[in-house]
Design a protein that fits this description.
single chain; 114 residues; 6 helices; mainly alpha
Length: 114
């Protein structure tokens, strides 16, 4: 069974960061903006400036757990599930990337990070 904190991270990423996700290979690796593009689920709201800023802060080279956040964003973006209303299905999308989300929890709870 997954740690309860993964669910919280999952929602934060799915609704705040993954909905911001651009290309599935990640902004730093392919030249796109992993934080500023629109969601693939057509009814998702556009990310706020604050969400984009937080996303970019999380994946900035040298930030604690940047690799884990980038990897999770890529996974969530690639495996994003839209519900019947055209919005991101957070639980389904988060479940598809449970290992990547767990890596964030582990990294954030550890001293250091990448």
């Amino acid at each position: 069974m997954r740690n309860a904190s993964v669910v919280g991270v999952s929602w934060a990423l799915v609704l705040g960061l993954a909905a911001c996700g651009g290309d599935p290979c990640g902004g730093h690796r392919c030249g796109g903006d992993a934080c500023g593009a629109t969601s693939r689920c057509t009814a998702d709201p556009k990310p706020s400036d604050a969400e984009i800023k937080e996303c970019r802060r999380s994946i900035k080279p040298g930030a604690k757990c940047a690799f884990e956040y980038q990897t999770a964003i890529e996974c969530l973006r690639a495996k994003q599930v839209c519900d019947a209303d055209g919005k991101t299905d957070g639980p389904a999308t988060g479940a598809a990337c449970a290992d990547e989300l767990e890596a964030i929890v582990h990294c954030e709870s550890a001293d250091g990070g990448r």
